[in-house]
Amino acid sequence: MSASGGTRAIVAALLANLGIAVTKFIAWLLTQSSSMLAESIHSVADSGNQALLLLGGRRAQRRATPQHPFGYGRERYIYAFIVSIVLFSVGGLFALYEAYHKFQDPHGIDSWHWVPVLVLCVAIVLESFSFRTAILESNHVRGKSSWVQFVRRARAPELPVVLLEDLGALVGLVFALFGVVLTLVTGDGIWDAFGTAAIGILLVTIAVVLAMETKSLLLGESATPEDQARIEAAITAGSEVERIIHMKTLHLGPEELLVAAKIAVREHETGEDIARHIDATEARIREAVPIARVIYLEPDIYQVRAEPAPATS
Known about the structure:
Elements: H1 3-31, H2 34-59, H3 75-104, H4 114-142, H5 147-153, H6 158-186, H7 190-219, H8 225-236, E1 243-253, E2 256-264, H9 271-288, E3 292-300
Parallel strand pairs: 2-3
Antiparallel strand pairs: 1-2
């Protein structure tokens, strides 16, 4: 994913959520609808999350130091994980808490009946533009992968986070509109409570999915299967490497990959020849996969292990 593409999607979502949050709070103050309050807090949480993603992207650009020799690229994963926690607690749990109280006192909407409906319809339109931006930016890097595969396999966390947040926001707005409209039609606030509870369950579910995917990135994920195949092809493309004995890859950040491999060289080559061959192999790897910035190649002599003789009776 290009950093600029992710930034555009984040900024679009941030601007949309800030405007939506203000209008939702005004609507809640006028109507005291629990669905509007849950959606207001949801938009505030989303705005804070997008600010965290921007901060994480900026901090990840710091240069490597002796204490952190591989740089700070994985800091983007840390901030994405914090986003899932915020969405779970501030968004999901608060909505469930508010729904619980609304079920205890399911009062209807007594004044300014048209305000929440108007605000929710406008919010759906604005959120749709934000979601469209995230989809367009994701399509630049998604390739032929399905949306589920993209969310699960993306090594850059920003676009999957914004996609899920925007999807959750749109569905949550539909839930809120459902609860508010039925409350206005029936005069029974229990529908407002149901809408609020649905929003809470939705946000908790999305937060859990984000946390699970980001945890995997924090633990350290290998290169994608496509990049691994390109690296293996680049290593064995030259005649100087007989075979790959074993290879490991690790994402130090979304756009930085570590490659460590033990390669088999010819038995009678000199140290000078081996050093020249390793340099050529590293150049091929970087050409095939530009994000492979940290490469360690260990030369060795490949030895075929004899199969143990079958036991005789």
